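Entry 14. Ran structure prediction on the chain below.
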Amino acid sequence: MRSVRDLYRPKFDMRLPLLHLHTIPSDGYIEFLRKGLLFDFDGLILDTETPEVRAWEWMFAQHNLEYPKEIWQSIVGRGPDQISEKPEDILVRMAELDDAPERLYKTFRARYFQILEKVARPGVEKLIADAIGLGYELHIVSSSEKRWVEGHLNDLGLREHFQTLTTRDEGVPTKPAPDLYLRCLEKTDLKPKQVWALEDSENGLTAAKAAGLRTIVCPNPTTEHLNFSKADKFVSSLEDITLPL
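Output, C-alpha cells:
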C-alpha cells in the first residue's frame, strides 16, 4: 500500500491568478497564501463511531433492550463534558441493574476493540497528500483525548502530516461548543476565511459553524442520516473532495 509520502506530488494550479508581489504588503501576502484544513478525527479519519454504536447495541441486547437511537445520535461527536448521561448509566437505569457502571463500561470496551478496524477511511491518504502538495496546513480538532487521537494517527502512519492537535486536553468545552475550533485558530494564527473544517457528525458541524468556519461534511455509516443542512459542502466520501477548495 502506498504511503501519503508516495502519493505526494507538488502541484501548480494554473487556475490561480498571477500576482504582482510589489502590490501586496509582505504580511498581507503571507496571509493570502496561508490555507488550512481542520480535520475532526473520530468517525472522519478513522471510523471509531460505528463500532462504538455496535458495541453498545450489543451491550443493551444482552439485557433484551434496544440502545435508544436518540441517545447515540445526540452523543456522537460530543466530548464527555457535553454528555449529561453516559450509555453505561442509561443501561443500569433501563435494565435496573446492580452492576456498577464502571464494570459495564469495561465490558463495552472489550467488545468495542473486538469490532474496531484500524484502517483509515477511503480517501484520507489521498486527500492529505493532495493538500500537502497544494500547500495546505493540516490540523486536528477533536473532542477526544490527545493520547487517543495521537496513538491512532501514529498507528495509521499519519501523525507527521498534522502540524497541531487540538483536543479536549486543552481544557475548553468540547463540541458542539465552538471552543476547540477557536483554540485551534488561536494557536495557529489562522483566520476563518483561510480554512475549511471537515466533520462527520452534526455536533461537529454545529461547533465548526459556531466558530465561523466553512464546512465539509463526510458522514460515516452511523451519522449518514443526521441533519447536515447547514454544511457548506456535503460529500459521501473523502475521495469526492477536489482541491483547491
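The chain has a mean pLDDT of 90. Will compare against last week's run tomorrow.
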